[in-house]
Specification:
alpha+beta; eight-stranded mixed β-sheet; Pept_S9_AS; protease; serine protease; prolyl oligopeptidase
């Protein structure tokens, strides 16, 4: 028997007479008051909405068995990729259902490891997460960052590896930064903002990041300011010490624009002078290593799909090509054991090729199938490296790669409660509105007939040069077990085909992304994978915007929508936290032509009263200081007021979570079970539980 959805009575939401003038266009913003997350009125609204939402979810018959099955699937051992410092290995492990993975260390792989840092012990509910680590060359000290309740704000501390004891050092107000130790292990470089006003900690804009050096054993107020730019409030800095310890390479970014600058400082020189090596922000540059003053970079300069170049810093600037651009997209490179490991994307699937330091091709690493590969880091003196392989039906498996023999061996292969042989993934290509060829992965149980009856979950992102590649998810596995099809569309705006593909989905071209997503849905329907009444769409952050735009432009095409932590108000996103940084992808309402483009697709501003919209479950979190929850609050209020269809419009608001990073396992399971239970009811699925 098919599940059905209970009826919903929404709590009332006050409308106010708020209007703004954008280049002569008067725009209403009746729910502006919801932007004040600290006000008693907003908190009461959140409480009332959650009460309605959780009453609805608790009334769904399959919610409990779905959570039980998902918990069982999720309960498998998970390892991270090992790295070695000072003759010791460091890696993460999760026994199965731990809220946060634990950092371990061991002298040898295969011996019983020792717990070095357990984030689960830092909070009772698992909401403090490990956000980054860096270990001294001698393996003596660990610098580690943590964040609470999903916030982007980090706090860094130092732990002695031998004893597991924390030193008194505490570094606060760090955001969007790693740590990088000096070669002698006496301190590390990091970037931070000035301490924010307490009331605006999670919503005020973030400007004027500064690069510091922290000397071990000293208080933070004595940290040395290495670099700042008082004339460039939007510039961000990332300091990385070269492997030989001589140089501090400074990545200078401006928001999310992939075009960056590269500066450097000679640490053997007592001068405070910072050299501007690549000051033009004319392309993307990623430092991967050096031979003395000669620096290797991955860049898309004159190569939109990427190439590897060498720059001699002692001579006039010239890019010497080491590995030329190919028909695949170069994602990253590493130097390990005097070899270059280059990681490519070929139609959104991973390839890794090995070259010598002069750019001569040596070999290609063989993988077990269509999937995603990460890793291949290490030192120039290493004879081994490690990597991870995953796919839609292959849980992350850790491999050791032996450089002398160019052979891979399995180091850790998890055992999950399912048979991957029962499922298959195919890659198809469809044509968008303007005839652009777009790839899509479709995963389903083998033998599934093409009869247009299958519940299908279409997922996308399409922005910020981010590539969607095959990845294993226990939640998605449950969806497949339920008889669902899982489709991932590789939309323009992402990085799958290089910078040209990215730019084709930005600013005035952003509508291309939504057209691609809509075309993906139409392909699935036309080829009888599914039908509109069985089709759900989902995405998070920029992907939440994608879902909001698609469901407002073509509401009849979808039966259900799951926008998560989405950017829904495209006219005011620059007003909060790091929102200004997205202008490189979205444009700004302050520019007339860009305002017109933004206003044309902004989900909040394109809802029309009396239209039938898909059943919608919006998800967000009170501590989200990346995409502030006001986006989701205002969109939900407007959609509830506009909805003329039978589909419910609900918002699920986490009270101790953020944008998504570091979310505890328990919360991930609960949220996924709620999503699937919502779709079971609103796609009228028949399950056997």
């Amino acid at each position: 028997m098919a599940a059905s959805a209970p009826s919903v009575n929404y709590p009332p939401t006050e409308r106010v007479d708020q209007f703004d003038d954008y280049h002569g266009t008067r725009v209403a913003d009746p729910y502006r008051w919801l932007e004040d997350s600290n006000s008693p009125k907003t908190r009461a609204w959140v409480e009332a909405q959650n009460k309605v939402t959780f009453a609805y979810l608790e009334g769904l018959p399959y919610r409990k068995p779905l959570k039980e099955r998902l918990t069982k699937i999720w309960n498998y051992e998970k390892y991270g990729i090992p790295n070695r410092e000072g003759g010791r290995f460091f890696f993460t492990r999760n026994s199965g259902l731990q809220n946060q993975s634990v950092l371990y260390t061991a002298a040898k792989l295969g011996e019983t490891p020792r717990v070095l840092l357990d984030p689960n012990a830092l909070s009772k509910d698992g909401t403090v997460a490990l956000t980054g680590i860096d270990i001294t060359d001698d393996g003596r000290y660990l610098a580690y960052g943590t964040a609470a309740s999903g916030s982007d704000w980090q706090q860094w501390r130092v732990r002695e590896v031998a004893t597991g004891r924390d030193l008194p050092d505490v570094i606060r107000w760090v955001k969007f930064s790693e740590a990088s130790w000096s070669k002698d292990g006496k301190g590390f470089f990091y970037s931070r903002y000035d301490e924010p006003n307490a009331a605006g900690q999670f919503k005020d804009v973030n400007y004027f990041q500064k690069l510091y050096f922290h000397r071990l054993g000293t208080p933070q107020d004595q940290d040395v300011l290495v670099y700042e730019r008082k004339d460039q409030k939007e510039w961000g800095f990332g300091g990385e010490v070269s492997e030989d310890g001589r140089y501090l390479v400074i990545n200078v970014s401006q928001g999310t624009d992939p075009k960056n600058r590269i500066f450097y400082k000679d640490l053997q020189n007592n001068s405070d002078r910072v050299m501007e090596l690549l000051p033009g922000a004319d392309a993307a540059y990623t430092f991967i290593g050096n031979d003395g003053p000669r620096f290797w970079f991955v860049t898309d300069k004159e190569a939109p799909r990427g190439r590897l170049v060498l720059i001699d810093t002692t001579r006039p600037l010239q890019l010497q090509e080491v590995v030329a651009q190919t028909d695949a997209t170069l994602q990253s490179a590493d130097i390990v054991g005097e070899r270059l490991f280059l990681r490519y994307l070929k139609d959104a699937r991973s390839q890794v090729k090995v070259f010598d330091l002069k750019g001569k091709f040596l070999s290609e690493v063989a993988f077990p199938g269509l999937g995603t590969v990460t890793g291949f880091s290490g030192k120039r003196t290493d004879s081994e490296t490690f990597y991870a392989f995953t796919s839609f039906t292959t849980p992350t498996t850790i491999y050791r790669y032996d450089l002398p023999t160019a052979k891979s061996t399995v180091l850790f292969q998890p055992q999950v409660d399912f048979d991957p042989g029962e499922y298959t993934t195919e890659q198809v290509f469809f044509h968008s509105k303007d005839a652009t060829r777009v790839p899509m992965f479709i995963t389903y149980k083998k033998g599934t007939p093409r009869n247009a009856r299958h519940p299908t979950y279409l997922y996308g992102y399409g922005g910020f040069n981010v590539s969607l590649t095959p990845t294993f998810s226990p939640a998605n596995l449950l969806w497949l077990e339920m008889g669902g099809l899982y489709a991932v569309a590789n939309l323009r705006g992402g990085g799958e085909y290089g910078e040209d593909w990215h730019q084709a989905g930005t600013k005035l071209n952003k509508q291309n992304v939504f057209d691609d997503f809509i075309a993906a849905a139409e392909y699935l329907i036309a080829h009888k994978y599914t039908a509109s009444e069985k089709l759900a769409i989902g995405g998070g952050s920029n992907g939440g915007l994608l879902v909001g735009a698609a469901m407002t432009q073509r509401p009849e095409l979808f039966a259900a929508a799951l926008p998560a932590v989405g950017v829904m108000d495209m006219l005011r996103f620059t007003k909060f936290t790091i929102g200004w940084a997205w202008v490189s992808d979205y444009g700004s309402a302050e520019e007339r032509e860009q305002f017109q483009a933004l206003y044309a697709y902004s989900p909040l501003h394109n809802l029309k009263a009396g239209r039938r919209y898909p059943a919608t479950l919006v998800t967000t979190a009170q501590s989200d200081d990346r995409v502030v929850p006001a986006h989701s609050y205002k969109f939900t209020a407007a959609l509830q007021a506009a909805q003329a269809g039978e589909g419910p419009v609900l918002i699920r608001i986490e009270t101790k979570a953020g944008h998504g990073a570091g979310k505890p396992t328990a919360k991930l399971i609960e949220e996924a079970a709620d999503r699937w239970a919502f779709l079971v009811a609103n796609l009228r699925m028949q399950l056997k539980f």
